């Protein structure tokens, strides 16, 4: 096995393992809100989110170390796409990890602030959590394909439809955020509207971070001919 092939396989394998716990962490968010709204004990779910966030941190550090410690010889001649985008890839993986960090923060804020859950504002937050979790599967596919494309000599792929789907989700979350905040301050029956505003902004940050991941992909793809992540003016 050549050095380049070994490096590619390691990068894909580490990324796949990372994405497994990444998706598992985000998928717990709607479940956490459902348990909280039902008055159930949700402490085990928060602990699981914490454990997954820590595992993601560890795996992300391994991936970043793999990329930063490799030189062109380690990567091999067939991995020029990775070699030429080394710094951008490090930033890409760090951006991915912010999503699980925000997920853990939301879990802690929910436990500490204990917002009333029998109102339209909380329902809006649940919708945002579901929207983000539903999009995670699509985001996982995009990242897996993107890393595989980078690791495969002269691979050709288009990610534009999937990236647009993630952008559409972010736009829907913007709308839900605005609805939650507007309702919180317009409805006199809502106690502590600032609390719901803070939660809405946190959930929206999750969606924004997912879109930021696609922006990082676009940056790297622009320097990797054959990988199309954004339509040019002539394609629109």
TrEMBL record:
Q: Return the Gene3D superfamilies for the record.
A: Phosphate transport system protein phou homolog 2, domain 2
**Membrane-spanning segments:** none
Highest taxon of source: Archaea
UniProtKB keywords: Coiled coil
> Is Ubl conjugation among this UniProt entry's keywords?
no
Alphabetical list of InterPro entries matching this protein? PhoU-like_sf, Put_Phosphate_transp_reg
Report which residue ranges the record marks as coiled coil: 125-179
Q: Which family does it belong to?
A: Belongs to the UPF0111 family.
Kindly provide the name given to this protein in its UniProt entry. Answer: DUF47 family protein
């Amino acid at each position: 096995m050549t050095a380049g092939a070994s490096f590619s396989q390691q990068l894909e394998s580490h990324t796949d393992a990372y994405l497994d716990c990444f998706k598992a962490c985000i998928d717990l968010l709607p479940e956490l809100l459902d348990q909280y709204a039902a008055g159930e004990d949700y402490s085990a779910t928060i602990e699981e989110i914490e454990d997954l966030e820590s595992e993601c941190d560890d795996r992300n550090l391994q991936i970043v170390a793999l990329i930063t410690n490799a030189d062109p010889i380690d990567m091999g001649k067939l991995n020029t796409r990775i070699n030429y985008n080394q710094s951008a890839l490090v930033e890409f993986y760090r951006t991915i990890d912010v999503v699980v960090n925000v997920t853990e923060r939301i879990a802690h804020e929910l436990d500490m602030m204990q917002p009333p859950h029998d109102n339209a504002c909380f329902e809006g937050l649940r919708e945002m959590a579901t929207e983000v979790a539903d999009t995670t599967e699509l985001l996982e596919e995009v990242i897996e394909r993107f890393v595989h494309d980078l690791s495969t000599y002269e691979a050709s792929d288009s990610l534009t439809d999937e990236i647009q789907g993630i952008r559409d989700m972010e736009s829907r979350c913007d709308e839900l955020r605005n609805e939650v905040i507007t309702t919180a301050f317009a409805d006199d029956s809502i106690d502590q509207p600032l609390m719901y505003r803070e939660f809405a902004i946190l959930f929206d940050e999750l969606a924004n971070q997912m879109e930021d991941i696609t922006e990082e992909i676009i940056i790297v793809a622009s320097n990797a001919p054959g990988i199309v992540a954004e339509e040019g003016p002539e394609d629109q």
